């Protein structure tokens, strides 16, 4: 979440609550709505690292609130983040462990494992599908996210199929 | 439960006699029951016998042994013509390559099954107008299939398969040749007719299509290795956050 | 009810398919129409040429029965007879003698005719004008008679009545009639005169005859009505002639022509059937995917077969209908002017029904195959990937350009269609070659008349002279090389109720140069040669003895050879005149004259006629067969069309198979020109193979086939000639050129077009 907060602050200074609202506005329902405490904790860490600094603003009938600014160091970090290639999703290594190891123990056979996993993926897919249907068609970001998730799932399913074919 | 299954296959076997005389078992003892209104996806690696199975269920190919019951009636003993008559009344078929009749217009393609089923030309036309309207293809009625995009062709093929309000819709990789946008159009259509109570058995590689199904049957080397419902873990509702996790 | 509804689904598909291939459908219709037209036109010409009676009789509304009575009969009684629609006459008729040139006397029959042409039994005026009361001396002479005597419109001539008075008349016009046979087979000759002229020539009423014609509704009732008429007229009737006798007198029984025509008809039909089967088969092949789709929708096997049968059969039947109409128009307008009557209903129906059956059978096979298509359209429509055929490898070995190699590979990738294409070209080509063989055979008849037994171009009858005088006069002519004494007699042969012609010509020591095809010429008395027809009739072979009776005298002859015999369907026995009994042989009835090579028979004839001799000129069988030339040309055109239609089908099919390949070829860097060359080679190679094959087989067969025809027509084997090498080379060259052109058209279009990378 650090980078997304830094990115928002690079656009304009803001206080914690404004950041939460901005995140919701951009990612909509596709994004798990972060709670305000989490945001303040993250901002505190960023301040400690010197990526942001805060200025207190007086308010008449309420306690002071802090407005956060991005620092030069923060901008640099953000720049580096944007430029570095993003790691791809990793293979479901836990399932692969099960697949390779479980038959040795005699606890479960591979076929059953794969079938169970497939059904699981399909039910995930079904949920994604239903979610996509419920999502407002204008909400591009959300729909793209869902589509991405679906494609990942499709890849996982294809990989399952390969496992089923290749492993005895 | 005493409802008659829409399809019941018992110990279905298909062995192809290849050119050199070596028998190729494509389907090896499949037992499958599909209830009315159910949506079953058949998955499996290529060469696992999916197409063969669905062709057997639609009578497009003859079984080597086993039984096929459609709507409680034995169908595997029917002659080729018997199957043809059964198909025209009770089964709609959709193929991967659309298979519209090339020299007929879209309208004619969709009207054909109704005419074949004995409907009057007027009734056939009304049904066609309704179906094409549903699919947003009204303005393409006079076009030749070759002038349509793949997705449009496949939607026309679906309309044609549904023209006679068949008890059973069989489809063999209906989205196998489509890009993701066209796939989405076809998917919407499938889920809609399914919601209206259409029984569907569909072969697919596409998890999105399979995700629509109530049940998935996995084939491997001509045998069913898995057959079970796709359960919904949560009730309806929830947001993307429930399924999408942004790292960071 | 259901079937009507299902019919509408089939109808929908048929309509759509026809709309999608209008050009091809039209070509099919035209091909079939061409064949039917050619067949009907050929049969019409044949019928007219060999049976002129029907045309004359129909056009002149002839009378089926002619009653000859001494006095005027009761016309109203005759008219009221059941089955009689019209009555011609009664007309007076009187015999007289015509004084021909050189004092020759020829009997003639003068018959009264009204000044206005009658509605029934109307003479058909062919030259000059009809009778005119202002010119009572003008008479109209029957054409064949006038020809034989040498009368023309305007020529004066004298007739002598029975009372010995001589009258000078002039020829006003010439007319034909179906009411009496041609002169000299039907004698005496006929002239129509006005009543007053007739009375002038024969004033005595007792010596005239009255003739009355009856036209019937149903010619089949002739015998019955003759009986009734004779009964009605109470013994007044002296003589009756019927249309059957007239027809028999006119008919030219030409089996050779009939057989040749039959051969072409059958060949044309086979070629048409092949073309149709090819077109239908090709279409079905390109449609297998669609047909499978239809089956997956619930079309049954029977429905598909029926649908294809209806579609393609309907095209064929439409072609037949069009052909019948076209043939009707041709006979009515183009040939009508030359006096050809439409074909009689029997052969007409036979041709129509025959072609319809052939069409249905030809279409049925591919339709049936289409019906057996499995209902699985999933089978990808990829063309079979060609391994390099042996031919293509050979092409590579001899370093041919790549386009040719690829084309050669394509040509034989699909075996069955390749074979069909080759046959589709080879069969018409073979028939064309055989047609050329017929042509060459006719040319040979004309060039070498002695080869068909017509070494003697002229035959002279002594008329009033003695045989010796005649011989001297003809031998004095500079053009005459030899004169063979001859006689023609009818002989009874054992086991036959009818007689056969016996021709004595030349002597055993100096025989007439008969064209001996088998065995040898007669050398002794009691030896004879025979035509194939006679051998067949008697079941005899060369070397057999036969016993015949000539004029009551039995005669045993040994048949020592077979000759080419174009007359009497080959049922002629030829021997030396010294083999006959003296009463039949002396004096010779005529002399057969062999002219010096290069002499003009017409001129020699005129010279001899001027010396008071009766001279007949031999009719070359080729002249009688002239109509076959027209038929050959027409059939060659139709056959060529059929071949081209087959090629077009093959081209379209080949193109469809190679759409995918073409994209690859272009991507590999073949220029459009090379692509075109590839495609042209693909179809052209098959065409060339077909043309060469058809040409060779045709050339080899034409001789044997024509000889076979000759054998069956009684003329005998030995007349057949292969087409001349020049003719054959030209035909093959033209055919190959046309084939390549036809292959070029679709190839050009394909090479230019942008080709999609995927099939669908
Ligand atoms: N017509 C045929 N003749 C011979 N073998 C066939 C035929 N059709 C399919 N097969 C074989 O049967 C097996 C199953 O094929 P198919 O049902 O098409 O598999 P899928 O659709 O799952 O890819 C494959 O091994 C295939 O090679
Ligand atoms: Mg398949």
TrEMBL record, chain A:
Domain Transcription regulator PadR N-terminal: 5-79
Top-level taxon of the source organism: Bacteria
Residue ranges constituting the Transcription regulator PadR C-terminal domain according to the UniProt record: 91-167
Alphabetical list of Pfam families matching this protein: PadR (PF03551), Vir_act_alpha_C (PF10400)
Coiled coil spans: none
InterPro entries per record: Tscrpt_reg_PadR_C, Tscrpt_reg_PadR_N, WH-like_DNA-bd_sf, WH_DNA-bd_sf
SUPFAM superfamilies listed in its UniProt record: Winged helix' DNA-binding domain
Descriptive protein name: PadR family transcriptional regulator
Organism for this UniProt entry: Sphaerimonospora thailandensis
From TrEMBL, chain B:
Protein name from the UniProt record: ABC transporter ATP-binding protein
UniProt GO molecular function: ATP binding; ATP hydrolysis activity; transmembrane transporter activity
GO annotation, cellular component aspect: membrane protein complex; plasma membrane
Keywords, sorted A to Z: ATP-binding, Nucleotide-binding, Transport
Listed CDD domains: ABC_MJ0796_LolCDE_FtsE (cd03255)
Domain ABC transporter, residue spans: 7-246
Ranges that cross the membrane: none
InterPro entries assigned: AAA+_ATPase (IPR003593), ABC_transporter-like_ATP-bd (IPR003439), ABC_transporter-like_CS (IPR017871), ABC_transpr_LolD-like (IPR015854), MacB-like_ATP-bd (IPR017911), P-loop_NTPase (IPR027417)
Presence of keyword Calcium: no
Protein source organism: Sphaerimonospora thailandensis
Automatic annotation (TrEMBL), chain C:
Cited InterPro entries: ABC3_permease_C, MacB_PCD, Macrolide_Exporter_MacB
Main location: membrane
Keywords (A to Z) from UniProt: Cell membrane, Membrane, Transmembrane, Transmembrane helix
Stretches assigned to the ABC3 transporter permease C-terminal domain: 263-375, 634-753
GO cellular component, one term: plasma membrane
Transmembrane intervals: 25-46, 256-277, 314-336, 348-368, 418-442, 630-655, 676-706, 726-745
GO molecular function: transmembrane transporter activity
Compartment annotation: Cell membrane
Tree of life domain: Bacteria
Pfam family, one: FtsX
UniProt keyword annotation of Transport present: no
Topology with respect to the bilayer: Multi-pass membrane protein
Start and end residues of each MacB-like periplasmic core domain: 26-206, 422-609
Similarity annotation: Belongs to the ABC-4 integral membrane protein family.
Name of protein: ABC transport system permease protein
Organism: Sphaerimonospora thailandensis
Upper lineage: Bacteria, Bacillati, Actinomycetota, Actinomycetes, Streptosporangiales
């Amino acid at each position: 979440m650090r980078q997304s907060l830094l990115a928002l602050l690079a656009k304009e200074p803001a206080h914690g609550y404004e950041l939460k609202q901005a995140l919701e506005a951009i990612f909509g329902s596709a994004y798990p709505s972060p709670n305000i405490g989490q945001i303040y904790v993250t901002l505190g860490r960023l301040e400690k690292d010197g990526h942001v600094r805060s200025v207190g603003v007086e308010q008449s009938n309420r306690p002071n609130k802090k407005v956060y600014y991005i620092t030069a160091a923060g901008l640099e970090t953000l720049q580096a983040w944007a430029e570095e290639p993003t790691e791809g999703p990793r293979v479901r290594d836990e399932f692969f462990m099960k697949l390779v190891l479980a038959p040795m123990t005699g606890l479960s056979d591979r076929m059953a494992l794969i079938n169970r996993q497939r059904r699981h993926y399909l039910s995930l897919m079904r949920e994604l599908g239903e979610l996509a249907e419920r999502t407002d068609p204008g909400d591009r970001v959300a729909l793209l996210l869902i589509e991405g998730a679906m494609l990942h799932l499709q890849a996982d399913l294809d990989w399952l199929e390969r496992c089923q074919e290749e492993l005895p | 439960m005493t409802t008659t299954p829409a399809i019941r296959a018992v110990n279905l076997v298909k062995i192809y006699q290849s050119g050199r005389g070596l028998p190729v078992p494509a389907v090896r003892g499949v037992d499958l029951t599909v209830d009315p209104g159910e949506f079953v996806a058949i998955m499996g690696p290529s060469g696992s016998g999916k197409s063969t199975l669905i062709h057997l269920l639609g009578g497009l190919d003859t079984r080597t042994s086993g039984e096929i019951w459609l709507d409680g009636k034995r169908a595997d003993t029917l002659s080729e013509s018997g199957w043809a008559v059964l198909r025209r009344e009770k089964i709609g078929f959709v193929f991967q390559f659309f298979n519209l009749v090339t020299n007929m217009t879209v309208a004619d393609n969709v009207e054909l099954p109704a005419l074949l089923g004995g409907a009057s030309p007027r009734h056939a036309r009304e049904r066609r107008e309704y179906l094409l309207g549903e699919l947003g293809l009204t303005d393409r009625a006079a076009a030749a299939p070759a002038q349509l995009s793949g997705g449009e062709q496949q939607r026309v093929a679906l309309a044609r398969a549904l023209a006679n309000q068949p008890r059973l819709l069989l489809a063999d990789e209906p989205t196998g040749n489509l890009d993701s946008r066209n796939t989405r159009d076809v998917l919407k259509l499938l889920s809609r007719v399914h919601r209206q109570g259409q029984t569907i058995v569909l072969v697919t590689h596409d998890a999105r299509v399979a995700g629509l199904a109530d049940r998935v049957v996995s084939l491997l080397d001509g045998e069913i290795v898995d057959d079970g419902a796709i359960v919904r873990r949560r009730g309806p509702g929830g947001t993307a956050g429930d399924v999408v996790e942004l790292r960071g | 009810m259901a079937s009507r509804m299902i019919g509408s689904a089939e109808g929908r598909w048929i309509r759509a398919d026809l709309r999608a291939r209008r050009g091809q459908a039209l070509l099919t219709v035209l091909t079939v129409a061409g064949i039917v037209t050619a067949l009907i036109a050929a049969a019409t010409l044949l019928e007219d040429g060999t049976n002129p009676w029907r045309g004359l009789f129909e056009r002149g509304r002839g009378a089926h029965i002619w009653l000859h009575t001494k006095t005027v009969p009761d016309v109203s009684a005759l008219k009221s007879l059941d089955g009689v629609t019209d009555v011609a006459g009664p007309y007076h008729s009187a015999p007289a003698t015509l004084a021909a040139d050189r004092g020759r006397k020829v009997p003639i029959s003068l018959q009264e005719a009204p000044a206005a042409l009658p509605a029934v039994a109307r003479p058909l005026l062919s030259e000059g004008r009809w009778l005119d009361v202002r010119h009572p001396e003008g008479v109209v002479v029957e054409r064949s008679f006038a020809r034989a005597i040498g009368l023309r419109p305007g020529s004066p001539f004298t007739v002598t009545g029975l009372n010995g008075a001589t009258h000078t008349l002039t020829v006003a016009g010439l007319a034909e009639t179906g009411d009496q046979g041609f002169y000299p087979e039907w004698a005496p000759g006929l002239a129509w005169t006005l009543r007053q002229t007739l009375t002038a020539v024969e004033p005595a009423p007792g010596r005239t005859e009255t003739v009355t014609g009856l036209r019937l509704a149903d010619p089949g009732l002739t015998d019955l009505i003759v009986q009734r008429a004779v009964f009605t007229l109470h013994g007044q009737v002296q003589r009756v002639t019927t249309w059957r006798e007239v027809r028999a007198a006119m008919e030219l029984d030409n089996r050779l022509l009939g057989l040749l025509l039959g051969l072409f008809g059958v060949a044309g039909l086979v070629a048409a059937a092949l073309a149709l089967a090819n077109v239908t088969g090709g279409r079905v092949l390109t449609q297998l995917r669609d047909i499978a789709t239809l089956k997956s929708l619930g079309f049954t096997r029977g429905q598909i077969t029926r649908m294809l049968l209806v579609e393609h059969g309907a095209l064929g039947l439409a072609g037949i209908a069009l052909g019948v109409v076209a043939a009707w128009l041709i006979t009515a307008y183009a040939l009508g002017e030359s006096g050809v009557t439409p074909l009689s209903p029997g052969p007409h129906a036979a041709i129509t029904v025959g072609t319809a059956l052939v069409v249905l059978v030809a279409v049925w096979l591919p339709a049936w195959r289409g019906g057996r298509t499995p209902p699985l359209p999933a089978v990808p429509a990829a063309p079979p990937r060609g391994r390099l055929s042996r031919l293509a490898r050979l092409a590579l070995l001899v370093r041919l350009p790549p386009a040719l190699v690829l084309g050669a590979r394509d040509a034989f990738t699909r075996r069955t269609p390749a074979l069909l294409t080759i046959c589709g070209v080879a069969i018409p080509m073979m028939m064309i070659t055989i047609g050329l063989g017929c042509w060459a055979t006719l040319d040979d008849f004309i060039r070498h008349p002695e080869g068909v037994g017509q070494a003697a171009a002229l035959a002279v009858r002594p008329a009033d002279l003695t045989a010796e005088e005649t011989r001297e006069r003809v031998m004095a002519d500079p053009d005459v090389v030899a004169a063979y004494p001859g006689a023609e007699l009818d002989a009874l042969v054992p086991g036959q109720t009818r007689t056969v012609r016996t021709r004595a010509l030349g002597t055993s020591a100096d025989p007439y140069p008969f064209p001996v095809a088998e065995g040898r010429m007669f050398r002794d008395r009691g030896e004879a040669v025979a035509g194939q027809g006679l051998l067949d009739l008697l079941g005899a072979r060369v070397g057999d003895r036969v016993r015949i009776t000539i004029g009551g005298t039995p005669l045993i002859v040994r048949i020592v050879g077979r000759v080419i015999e174009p007359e009497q369907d080959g049922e002629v026995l030829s021997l030396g005149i010294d083999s006959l009994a003296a009463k039949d042989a002396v004096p010779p009835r005529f002399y057969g004259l062999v002219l010096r090579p290069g002499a003009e028979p017409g001129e020699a004839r005129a010279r001899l006629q001027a010396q008071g001799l009766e001279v007949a000129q031999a009719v070359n069988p080729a002249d009688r067969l002239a109509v076959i030339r027209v038929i050959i040309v027409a059939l060659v055109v139709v056959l060529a069309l059929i071949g081209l239609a087959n090629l077009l089908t093959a081209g379209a099919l080949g193109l469809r198979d190679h759409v995918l390949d073409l994209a690859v070829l272009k991507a590999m860097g073949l220029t459009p020109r090379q692509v075109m060359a590839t495609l042209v080679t693909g179809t052209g190679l098959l065409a060339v193979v077909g043309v060469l094959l058809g040409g060779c087989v045709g050339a080899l067969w034409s001789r044997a086939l024509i000889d076979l025809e000759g054998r069956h027509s009684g003329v005998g084997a030995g007349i057949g000639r292969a087409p001349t090498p020049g003719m054959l080379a030209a035909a093959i060259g033209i055919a190959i050129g046309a084939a390549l052109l036809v292959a070029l058209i679709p190839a050009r279009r394909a090479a230019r077009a942008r080709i999609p990378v995927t099939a669908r």
